Sequence to fold (116 residues):
Amino acid sequence: QVQLVESGGGWVQAGGSLRLSCAASESIYRIAVMGWHRQVPGNQRELVARITSGGSTNYADSVKGRFTISRDNAKNTVYLQMNSLKPEDTAVYYCSSGSYQEFASWGQGTQVTVSS
Fold:
């Protein structure tokens, strides 16, 4: 099972930007779907963005136009560029990988805090 390690989280003021990285322990070339999720304590984990092996992307309505997911197969890394951040984006962000049916592998998460 692929191991995933997130980095790039931190504290930022509203309107600012952060870029999250997710480094995989093996090639992601054949992984069908890579995703970013987030979770606030007491809430369910929600899918923020996903990208397929063919490069197709999907986003949660709440982040459309502000967040961009990308993958660099040569570096075995997936990115989440987050712009125009809002306080409601504050959460632990998780990287995931899997098939179109389910995400089987998860990272440990990275905290993103956006202050108003």
Observations:
- The chain has a mean pLDDT of 96.
- The CA atoms of residues 85 and 104 lie 28 Å apart.
